[in-house]
Design brief:
The chain has about 240 residues and is of the alpha/beta class. About 35% of the residues lie in helices and about 20% in strands. The protein contains eight helices and eight strands, in the order E-E-E-H-E-H-E-H-E-H-H-H-E-H-E-H. Helix 2 (about 75-90) crosses helix 3 (about 105-115) and helix 4 (about 135-150) runs antiparallel to helix 5.
Length: about 240
């Protein structure tokens, strides 16, 4: 594990393999960290499909895992996008693919919106989205905030409230609108979600809206998982060059 420092932000990350760069954005909501991949149906940090062919970069988002940062009322999706791009700059990586699960869906959209010339392809596994579940996301945010509140005396109650609304007060993918998805230029592979936080309808609509998208509906077990692993490998191979 390595640490990248930028002003008062510390980002924990690790690298594996060689080749075209693939940035991993882990599941876990506000606790998106590398270790969360070990509990996912498909683990990009372990599969030879990625580790044997690519330079894989896995990071902890700020205030999760080994990463730390101040909390302010101005924090929101763009704050995380800036961290992600700064890490890639630090590593000397210009163009890259990105694989994200859960909250990684809107994070991917943030990267594609901020730096479309840098993201060559994206894989979203069960992206989050708003479908009558906003209170549940607010609850997850509040639980995370309570777990680290004592470490952040710089943030008062109004700052936490503003931050929470910035993250989960929006529509569709919270951090990305339908128009954002419809204007996506990078090729996209979507592996469908099927629960409260990752509604199937969100995955379907993302795949329908994005101009160059493919949807995989079944991918979590047995032969479906093996087929999905192969499909991800083929997709990345088609859209990346060394």
């Amino acid at each position: 594990m390595a640490i990248f420092e930028r002003d008062d932000v510390r980002i924990g990350y690790e690298e594996h393999g060689e080749g075209f760069a693939v940035l991993l954005i882990a599941p876990g909501g506000m606790q998106s960290r590398r270790a969360a991949w070990s509990r996912a149906p498909w683990n990009p940090m372990k599969t030879p499909t990625l580790r044997d062919r690519y330079r894989v970069i896995a990071m902890d988002q700020r205030n999760a895992g080994e990463s730390t940062a101040p909390v302010s009322a101005e924090d929101g999706w763009a704050t995380y996008t800036a961290d992600q791009l700064a890490l890639m700059d630090h590593l000397g990586i210009d163009r890259f693919a990105v694989v994200g699960m859960c909250i990684g869906g809107p994070y991917i959209m943030g990267l594609c919106r901020a730096a479309p010339e840098r993201v060559v392809a994206a894989v979203m596994l069960q992206p989050i989205g708003e479908q009558g579940n906003r209170k549940s996301f607010f609850g997850l945010f509040d639980g995370w905030a309570e777990s680290i509140r004592a470490e952040h005396p710089e943030a008062d109650a109004s700052a936490w409230e503003s931050f929470r609304h910035a993250m989960f007060g929006g529509e569709f993918m919270f951090g990305a609108s339908r128009q954002d998805v419809a204007s996506l230029t990078a090729p996209l592979l979507v592996l469908m979600g099927d629960d409260l936080f990752h509604p199937a309808a969100i995955s379907r609509e993302v795949a329908d809206l994005a101009p160059n998208a493919t949807l995989i509906e079944r991918w979590k077990e047995g032969e479906d998982l093996a087929a999905a692993d192969a499909a991800i490998g083929a997709f990345l191979g088609q859209h990346t060059t060394t």
